[in-house]
């Protein structure tokens, strides 16, 4: 709580009347709304001033003796969690002489009635002005609040849209990066697998070719060896058969020769014996 001090003071003296209006404003924080405080103080000041004038005129016209009216008004306004307290202290005193003639009484009564009518008109005008001021202030406050709310909503919507756009862009970028990385990894894996398969196939083909060549060579060698062996065996057999045939033929020839010789000898001996 702090004390702003005496806001305004109004003093006037007329025909023994004294009006003192003191307005004190207290607030919880120094950042209270100046517009609200000023409007509240002006409205209360005008209303109280009218009440003071009315009370003074009525008291002076209705009674010839001196009168003192003391009014204390306390207005508490809560605005935006700030407390505004307006204290109005009024002292109205009036005095007049009791000795007067009948003619002066009648003239004073006529003047008091005219003053009353003028006071009523003044009160009506002041009340209308106060109501208009209050309505204008309320409309201004409502417009300001609506504008502030609209601005806040627009700012919030813009911030939300920006955040959503940023999030969408980030998500799209992340998805694109992930897709690119996955595609690159898949391509690399496919290339590596193809290379490995090609290398393995080439190695297998080479091994198969080598094995086939070796087998063919071995088969050829075996065939050649077999052929050579067969040829050798055939040659040996042929030679042996030829030799056997030659021997047999020679033996037959020898036997025939021997038989012929023996037969010749026998025949010769037979011939000789005869």
UniProtKB/TrEMBL annotation:
Annotated source species: Dreissena polymorpha (Zebra mussel)
Transmembrane segments: 34-56, 68-92, 119-143, 150-173, 179-202, 209-242, 248-272
Keyword 4Fe-4S: no
The protein, known as: ABC transmembrane type-1 domain-containing protein
Keyword hit for DNA damage: no
Keywords: Membrane, Transmembrane, Transmembrane helix
Top-level taxon in the UniProt lineage: Eukaryota
């Amino acid at each position: 709580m702090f004390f702003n001090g005496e806001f305004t003071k109004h003093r006037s003296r007329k025909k023994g009347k004294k009006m003192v209006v003191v307005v004190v404003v207290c607030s919880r924080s120094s950042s209270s709304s100046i517009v609200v405080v000023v409007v509240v103080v002006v409205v209360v000041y005008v209303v109280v001033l009218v009440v003071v004038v009315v009370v003074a005129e009525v008291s002076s016209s209705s009674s010839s003796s001196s009168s003192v009216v003391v009014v204390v008004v306390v207005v508490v306004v809560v605005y935006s969690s700030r407390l505004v307290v307006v204290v109005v202290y009024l002292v109205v005193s009036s005095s007049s002489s009791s000795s007067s003639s009948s003619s002066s009484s009648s003239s004073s009564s006529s003047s008091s009635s005219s003053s009353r009518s003028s006071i009523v008109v003044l009160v009506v005008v002041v009340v209308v002005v106060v109501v208009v001021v209050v309505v204008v202030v309320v409309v201004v406050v409502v417009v300001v609040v609506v504008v502030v709310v609209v601005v806040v909503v627009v700012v919030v919507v813009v911030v939300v849209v920006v955040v959503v756009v940023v999030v969408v862009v980030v998500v799209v970028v992340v998805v694109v990066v992930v897709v690119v990385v996955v595609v690159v990894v898949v391509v690399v894996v496919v290339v590596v697998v193809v290379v490995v398969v090609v290398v393995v196939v080439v190695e297998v083909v080479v091994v198969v070719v080598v094995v086939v060549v070796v087998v063919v060579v071995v088969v050829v060698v075996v065939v050649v060896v077999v052929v050579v062996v067969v040829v050798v065996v055939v040659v040996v057999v042929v030679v042996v058969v030829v030799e056997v045939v030659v021997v047999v033929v020679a033996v037959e020839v020898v036997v025939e020769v021997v038989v012929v010789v023996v037969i010749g000898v026998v025949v010769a001996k037979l011939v000789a014996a005869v």
